[in-house]
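Hi P.,

Sorry for the delay on this. The queue was packed all week, but I finally got your sequence through. Input first:
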Amino acid sequence: MKNMRRFLMPWLALLVGASLLAGCGGGSWRQGGIAGTKPYTVQGKTYYPLASARGFVEEGIASWYGEKFHGKTTASGERYNQNAMTAAHKLLPLGSRVRVTHLGSGRSVVVRINDRGPFAGGRVIDLSRGAAMRLNMLREGTARVRVRSLDAADKKRAAGRR
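Then the structure:
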């Protein structure tokens, strides 16, 4: 019996150790260990969303999406409301809040990222109809914008502007 224990104990220890190490990989960025950061593939391209929006700044073309998607499920699992202050972004974590500034007019809005996209024409963000209306870009359909993530202090300032 002692010989069997001596033989099994190292193997059992190895098995337990391997199991514990395998469990450490469960929060991997490739598996989307952080909510809203799971990799996804669209049109043959795989996107790896950021683990954090902290310090994020991007300039480019914004577009908007409205009635055609109203009521459909977004990447965050909620129903899209074209009148809400939301947006789609390819890399920002779902739930992130960003300030979008129309570089032509200086107008800005705060939106919450709740969907993925845009996947057309080199655009950087897809705004809800409500956000696009506040930026006065409905008629043009697109606008040159700056997207800047909001930190805790910025969120407090933005809440005061409502």
